[in-house]
Amino acid sequence: MPPRISSGPISADSWPSAKTESARQAPRTGRSAPQEPNGSADRPLGAPVRGRSGCAAPLRKERHLADLSSTLQQFIPHGFCLSWEPRLVALHLISDGVTALAYATIPFMLIKLVRARSDLQFSWMFVLFGAFILACGATHAMSIWTLWHPDYLAAGLVKALTALVSVGTAAVLWPLIPRAIALPGPAQWEAVHQDLRRQINDREAAEQEVRRLNAELEVRVAARTAELQEAHDRLSALHAELEQRVRDRTQELEQAQAALVATARQAGMAEVATNVLHNVGNVLNSVNVSVGLMGQQLRQSRLGGLGRTVGLLAEHRADLGAFMGQDPRGQMLPDYLARLDTTLQDEQRALQHELEGVAKSLDHLKDVVATQQTYAGHRQMLAPVRVDELVQDALRMNAGALSRHQVRVELALQELPPRLLDRHRVLQILVNLISNAKQAMDAKEAGGHTLKLSAHQDEEGTLHLAVQDQGDGIAPENLTRIFHHGFTTRAQGHGFGLHSCVLAAREMGGELRVHSDGPGHGATFTLVLPRVAPPADPSGATPSPSAA
């Protein structure tokens, strides 16, 4: 209980001092007050005390604690400072109590706010403010306690804690001021709201425009689908017609080939038939390749994609607008239809190009067959023949192989009047020589082949037909053997072609010559025919080669 408060003011001297109290208690304990060892009582408080050993630290520490305890016991409650005036004490009590209660309540409200608003910026700052306010409330509570209890050390520690929290809060708050100022205010939030509203209005207008475009697109897609369906029908009909035409032409070619073989055999044109049939086979292979390509193109045609597109549109006929505007497949459909249209047009042009190629091949084949049939009917018969036409016929029979190997033909034909010749034998020789020249140039690079054919008549009326190539050439030791039966320098050769040619030349009273500067320098074969053919000499003797 606090001491009784007198009616008059109380001086500080009326509160018993610690020294007086200690003096009063000394007789009770039977011990006298502690005396200063080795010194006078007037020695300053905390001065070092030295014993015989000279060590003062333990005694100084104990004396310091004793002095601190004695000092704390001398304090009086704060109420004495207020003279225990009831109204003044009540004022301090109520003010500090209400403040402490409010300060104790505010942190809980801040914590509740932070938990309720997880999106709140700087939420940790509210927690720091709560700690600061709670510490301030503790100082007010200690003020109430010290009215009756002089625990000023505890009160000082609470104030020191409050100071630390306050300084920390201030230190953290100061850098946050620019960021807090930069936070949008109500006017800025209102501007953002208005901008969002405008964007929503624009979005609604755009959606309305999209719906309008979808409706228009439905009409365009329906029309385009009808056009594509019509194109599909036309291409299907063209495909069927093309297959039938190819079958018919193939059958005609097979029949023509069979007739050509029979005609060549009946006419005794073994060598010519070989070259002609080889040429016909090349044309047939070209036709078959073209037909195969057209069939592959038709099998790989995008017409199937058109059918699937038509089925997809039919499936979504009821909600075509939504399908074109929202479904990813519908959104890609316009671009797909445009690409499909381009692809179908390209396929149609490619098929047309292949058909034109087949037609040209067939025309060429007709010319070869007509030429062969023309010469097949004139076996061992002399008739007026134009030399230039005879050379052209021989080239025509080898045209496929020459074109395929990119052989360039040069002609040096003297303008001659028609002369009596055995066209079958001359054609046989020319076809064989041209074929051999092409084969001799096969080993050279493509594009570097040149074949030269020349024809002239000397003063005695002797005809000279020469075939010159830029092929491998002939070794000198082979010049005397090249016309022998069975001699050949090719792995696939049979050695009969040149031997039959030299026999045919002798039957017409002429000769076949060869000239070559050696390997790599090409060769020249010359058919020499007199104006009037002497009687045939089919002895089979091999002529000696001479310079052309």
Folded structure, characterized:
- The protein has 548 residues and is of the alpha+beta class.
- It folds into three domains: 79-183, no CATH class; 240-369; 379-529, 2-Layer Sandwich (Heat Shock Protein 90), CATH 3.30.565.10.
- 63% of the residues lie in helices and 8% in strands.
- The strands form two sheets. It has a five-stranded mixed sheet with strand order 2-4-5-7-6. A two-stranded antiparallel ribbon has the order 1-3.
- The protein is elongated.
Secondary structure topology:
Layout: H1 18-29, H2 57-73, H3 78-81, H4 86-116, H5 123-145, H6 152-182, H7 186-267, H8 270-299, H9 303-315, H10 320-326, H11 328-376, E1 382-385, H12 387-397, H13 399-404, E2 407-413, E3 419-422, H14 423-440, E4 449-457, E5 463-469, H15 497-507, E6 511-515, E7 523-529
Parallel strand pairs: 2-4
Antiparallel strand pairs: 1-3, 4-5, 5-7, 6-7
Helix pairs in contact: 4-5, 5-6, 7-8, 7-9, 7-10, 7-11, 8-11, 9-11, 10-11, 12-14, 14-15
